[in-house]
Amino acid sequence: DEPSEWEKTELDQAQVEQRIKEYNSQINSNLFMSLNKDGSYAGFIKVQLKLVRPVAVPATNRVPAPQAGRPHPQGVKRRTSFYLPKGTVKHLHILSHTRASEVIDALLRKFTVIDNPRKFALFERSEKDEQ
């Protein structure tokens, strides 16, 4: 619980380019960052999911046969819920101007989750000295 002040520091183009080179030199995978001509940058982020509630996904397309004397209800949307395994990891390709809500939407689409995106939050986690 170290006190810190969050200040938004603007970097010039040369500083951004230098930081991207430093980052890419430390990466031992193909998840590199690149600098675009307009000054924005693109790269991959690793998202580790730690959900505490089940998520809803569309049910399979298999529709049970209607029972005798009961018509099959039309327009009924079927869904099922399950828990994602803790520590599930996804890599997303994003741009420097991608908003957190857009990252959440992209993750939900990747897992075909139909829950409201406002139920989810995105947090940054960093490790220091393996802690």
UniProtKB/TrEMBL annotation:
PANTHER family: RAS ASSOCIATION DOMAIN-CONTAINING PROTEIN 1 (PTHR22738:SF12), RASSF (PTHR22738). The gene is Rassf1. GO terms for cellular component: microtubule cytoskeleton; nucleus. Coiled coil: none annotated. InterPro entries: FERM_domain, RA_dom, RASSF1-6. It holds the Pfam family RA. Residues 78-131 form the FERM domain. It comes from the Eukaryota. GO terms for biological process: Ras protein signal transduction. This is RASF1 protein. Residues 76-131 form the Ras-associating domain.
